Amino acid sequence: MNVDFDILLEQAQAAAEQAYAPYSGYRVGAALLCGDGSVVTGCNVENASLSLTICAERNAVFNAVNQGKREFLALAIYVDSDEIFPPCGACRQVLAEFNPRLPILYANRLGSIFSDLETLLPQAFTLSEQ
Ligand code: THU
C-alpha cells in the first residue's frame, strides 16, 4: 500500500487538538495507518500524578487493537511545538510488538523527520525466536 504521509500527518495534527496536556503543555497526536487502510489516532492524556500520563502513540495503538486492528503500516506523530521528538522508549517497545520495521514520520510546527522503528529501536525485546 502506498502511504500518503501528508494526509497521515494531518490526521496526527488533528488528534493533537484533543490532547489533554495541562502539565507539560506538549500537545501530541499520533495517526496509525492500519493494514485495512483505515487510520486510528491517539493523543496524549496527562494526569496530576504525572507518571500515569499516557503518550499519543500508545493511545493510538491501544485504540486500534481495541478495534480489532493489529497490522500497522505507518505512523505519523505531531507535536504542537517548536521542539521535535521521536517516540519515547515505552512507545517504541509497544509499537515493535506489532511491526518492528514500522515507518515513522515525526513532526512539529516547523518540519518533520522520517525514520523507522528498526532505526529507533534496534534489537527490541521479544519473546519469539529471531
Ligand atoms: N509524549 C507523547 O505523547 N509521546 C512521546 O513519545 C513522548 C512524550 C507526551 C507525554 C507527555 O504528555 C508530554 O508528551 C511530555 O512528555
Give your account of this protein's structure.
- With 130 residues, the chain is an alpha+beta fold.
- It has one domain: Cytidine Deaminase, domain 2 (3-Layer(aba) Sandwich), CATH 3.40.140.10.
- 27% of the residues lie in helices and 23% in strands.
- The protein has 4 helices and 5 strands, in the order H-E-E-H-E-H-E-E-H.
- The protein has a 5-stranded mixed beta sheet.
- A hairpin with a 4-residue loop joins strand 4 and strand 5.
- The longest helix has 12 residues.
- It is globular and about 40 Å long.
- The chain starts with a helix and ends in a 10-residue tail after the last helix.
List its salient traits.
130 residues, alpha+beta, Cytidine Deaminase, domain 2, five-stranded mixed sheet, 4 helices, 5 strands, binds tetrahydrodeoxyuridine
Count every helix, treating DSSP H or I runs of 4 or more residues as helices.
4
Give the termini separation.
Answer: 26 Å
The topology string of helices and strands comes to HEEHEHEEH
CATH class: Alpha Beta
Oligomer: single chain
Q: Give the ligands present.
A: tetrahydrodeoxyuridine
| Shape type | globular
* pLDDT < 50 stretches: none
Strand content: 15-25%
Q: Which structural class matches the secondary elements? A: alpha+beta
Widest sheet: strand ordering: 2-1-3-4-5
Largest sheet: 5 strands, mixed
Named at the architecture level, the CATH assignment is 3-Layer(aba) Sandwich
Annotated CATH homologous superfamily: Cytidine Deaminase, domain 2
Number of strands: 5
